[in-house]
Design brief:
The protein is mostly helical. It has helices at about 1-30, 35-45, 50-60, 70-80, 85-95, 105-115, 120-135, 140-155, 155-170, 175-190, 195-205, 215-225, 230-245.
């Protein structure tokens, strides 16, 4: 009976901490950074690694607090060691880019691998980039495609976009604009502006899809509205060209 009570108390404790993190994320969405910081800090101090991870993000971005990359690094490191897949990914980015640590692509790859092994698709995406470019690991396009495919199947928009690029240029696969268009569409639907823009380009040129300036405009608009400057440029250029041709 005593053991059962302990387990129930631990479960309750975890639920309370998870609730605190959820409340912190809600506060972030409302731009109430002070409240978010308090929720995350309390959860982190109670040993809940997702609280530490989110606290790390606040320190990294300087959201509502003074930016402190050293604290962010420490929080990501501790959270990763505790099994937080998203923290391992962010820590990998620090080592990949040399953010307040010596640039170390080998370590970055190890961290992305750990993140991916936990099922975090952004970690798999970054690992795929490493394999595609031979960054800290021997270049392996087939492995990159495998990882991108897994990420895309689980709705990681960036993975879908990169698969589209691979099929557009025939990198390690036979060039296939039709497949590329499908991956760009999924990327665009997932909120990736480059996917929207690239799909617009295919419609403008009639590659893998029926040529359509109207569809090109539709996807350039989406890319532009998502803040992608090339999408805005392509939209303006197409509008100007149509105006001149009249």
């Amino acid at each position: 009976m005593k053991q059962r009570i302990v387990v129930m108390l631990v479960m309750l404790f975890s639920i309370i901490n998870a609730s605190g993190v959820d409340q912190g994320i809600e506060a972030i969405n409302q731009k109430d950074y002070e409240k978010a910081f308090n929720y995350f800090e309390e959860a982190c101090n109670d040993g809940y690694h997702q609280g530490c991870y989110n606290l790390g993000i606040m320190y990294e971005k300087g959201e509502g607090i003074k930016q402190d990359l050293s604290k962010a690094l420490k929080l990501y490191t501790n959270s990763c060691e505790a099994g937080a897949s998203n923290a391992c990914n962010n820590l990998g980015v620090f080592y990949s880019k040399g953010i307040i640590v010596k640039k170390n692509l080998l370590k970055a790859v190890d961290l992305y691998q750990k993140s991916c092994s936990f099922g975090y698709m952004q970690g798999c995406f970054n690992l795929a980039i490493a394999y595609e470019g031979g960054l800290g690991v021997k270049q392996d396009l087939l492995k990159a495609i495998e990882l991108y495919s897994e990420g895309c199947s689980k709705n990681n928009a960036y993975s879908c976009h990169n698969l589209g690029v691979i099929y557009t240029y025939g990198k390690g696969v036979e060039q296939d604009y039709t497949k590329a268009s499908k991956f760009y569409l999924k990327a665009c639907e997932g909120g990736d502006p480059t996917g929207c823009n690239n799909l617009g380009v295919l419609y403008k040129q009639g590659l893998g899809v029926s040529q359509s300036d109207e569809k090109a405009i539709e996807y350039y608009v989406k890319a532009c509205n998502l803040g992608y400057e090339d999408g805005c440029y392509n939209l303006g250029f197409l509008y100007a060209k149509k105006h001149i041709s009249k």
